[in-house]
Write a structure and sequence with these properties.
It is built from 10 helices and 25 strands. The chain is of the alpha+beta class and about 500 residues long.
């Protein structure tokens, strides 16, 4: 794609924070294999918005998807055609409908002929065996394995795009029990394949189990196991349905069934994803639910569980002020640190954010949760109520302490720093130091925003040119001396030969 592109769009959240600012979806935006691109702009502290550009919505690193285009760039017809060809070539080999037909044929096969290619992550029919003969594959794929595809497929572990840190059995079962206890009968599972398959499995095994699920996920491999009414290929960063209007209509019907009652959205996005982009997509899904004919929906939000680390609380509340964070620790099977525990790094930082009344979210007492009558919600046993803050203030499960100077509770390992005028770790580097700018020595700004920077750069460039000239002279001098020595040595050799003859 076009040259001169920024290296990824890491940290593109707030326009005032410096770096890149996310402007969101734009009408007529160009597309990459992950759907319509998002619009960004370079930004700096206290400076006007810089030049705008389009980048991939799903991939924050250019090595994963190198799509880039300036907003005001004129793209030639040849390049547009090449881009369309590239996008087509990077789509799955089979359509969703073809995968459904393949699945029907696969389950008719005897157990001995059911094979799964581990390299291609694909169910194989007998006439495809030869094509995959050099690959590793699993044999005798059982019906139980087909009903648990998240166990069969390799998890994708790109933390920013499609990180598949799959719910542990404990968390998955808790979520499903909570959903059924709250009376929900339909679950829009956005990026939660393990919850979806648990619902599907229970529905096929238990006649009286009434909960149904629709999975929206960017991982197209799941289309091999679910029908078009059970799975939609979906990018949650730009609200894009790869199946077009038919897939979007499937989602709309699911949300609006029974006038939109008893439906909840559960989402578990990649933790490296932009909160602003995710919030925009989730609001669009909620807006679809609001259009149902049920009276009173205009003043309500579709019930939702957003599963995300607790340190994103302020960002989530910025877009969804009605949300509250629960103390329940969500843990994952294939993540080394995000495990349920009691202290330190062994505990998971992942929590449930919801717009449901906190007192209705009953957390398991046997796992160390208790009900705080003052806060009217379940909290971790280590989360003690602060009388000054009038709240159970801990975010990480430990007992926090109140700082009178900060006027809030802080982590137990933090201490008040008079230099920074806030609490921080004891060995932290103070933000407010007497040291000034590295270029001019003055306080109040960094060297990247130094007013003297252009002059300094000019001076540096002049010095650099001077150094290059000096080096060139030295090299030329060395070359001349070397040439002279070689010539003198050659003349001596000639004289010696003449004397011998």
């Amino acid at each position: 794609m076009a040259g001169g592109a920024p290296e990824g769009w890491r940290g593109a959240e707030r326009p005032g924070a410096g770096g890149l600012a996310l402007l969101g979806a734009a009408p007529g935006a160009p597309s990459c294999p992950h759907g319509p691109a998002l619009l960004f702009a370079k930004s700096g502290r206290g400076k006007e918005e810089g030049r705008r550009f389009y980048a991939c919505s799903a991939c924050r690193d250019r090595k994963d998807c190198n799509f880039f285009q300036w907003e005001d760039e004129k793209v030639s017809t040849t390049r547009l055609a090449a881009r369309e060809e590239y996008n087509r070539n990077h789509q799955p080999s089979f359509t969703h409908r073809q995968n459904v037909e393949r699945y029907k044929n696969f389950i008719l096969l005897p157990l001995s002929k059911r094979r799964f290619c581990q390299e291609c992550q694909q169910l194989l029919l007998p006439d495809e065996w030869e094509e995959h003969s050099a690959h590793q594959f699993l044999c005798d794929i059982s019906t139980a394995q087909l009903k648990s595809p998240s166990q069969l497929l390799y998890p994708l572990e790109n933390k920013k795009t499609n990180a598949q840190y799959l719910f542990a059995e404990r968390s998955c079962r808790f979520l499903l029990d909570l959903i059924t206890d709250l009376g929900f009968r339909r679950v829009l599972s956005v990026g939660t394949p393990r919850l979806h398959e648990m619902i599907q499995s229970k529905a096929s095994q238990e006649e009286d189990f009434r909960v149904r699920s629709l999975l929206l996920d960017i991982d197209f491999r799941y289309s091999q196991f679910y029908t078009e009414d059970e799975f939609c290929h979906y990018n949650m960063f730009n609200d894009y349905f790869f199946g077009g209007e038919a897939a979007r209509e499937t989602c709309r019907k699911f949300l609006c069934q029974d006038n939109g009652e008893r439906v909840i959205m559960v989402t578990d996005p990649p933790f490296g994803g932009l909160v602003e982009a995710l919030a925009s997509s989730f609001k669009k899904l909620m807006a679809v639910w609001k259009k149902t004919e049920k009276e009173g929906h205009n003043n309500q939000e579709m019930p939702m569980f957003w599963i995300f680390p607790y340190f994103f609380e302020s960002r989530i509340l910025e877009f969804f002020p009605s949300f509250s964070m629960m103390d329940y620790q969500v843990d994952y099977d294939n993540h080394a640190l995000y495990k349920h525990g009691k202290t330190g790094r062994r505990q998971s930082p992942v929590r449930i954010f919801t717009n449901l009344t906190p007192s209705k979210i009953v957390l398991p007492v046997e796992e160390g949760y208790r009900f705080c009558a003052l806060c009217q919600r379940y909290v971790s046993s280590g989360n003690q109520h602060c009388e000054i803050c009038n709240s159970c203030t801990s975010k990480d499960g430990r007992q926090w302490k109140h700082c009178v100077l900060c006027k809030k509770c802080v982590k137990p390992s933090w201490f008040h720093c008079n230099n920074c005028n806030c609490c921080a770790l004891q060995n932290h580097t103070c933000e407010k130091t007497d040291a000034g700018c590295f270029i001019c020595g003055k306080a109040g700004h960094k060297r990247s925003t130094c007013p003297s920077l252009p002059c300094t750069r000019t001076a540096c460039q002049a010095d650099k040119k001077q150094r290059q000239k000096t080096l060139k002279r030295i090299k030329l001098g060395i070359c001349k001396r070397s040439a002279m020595k070689h010539a003198m040595f050659s003349r001596k050799k000639v004289k010696n030969k003449k004397k011998k003859t």
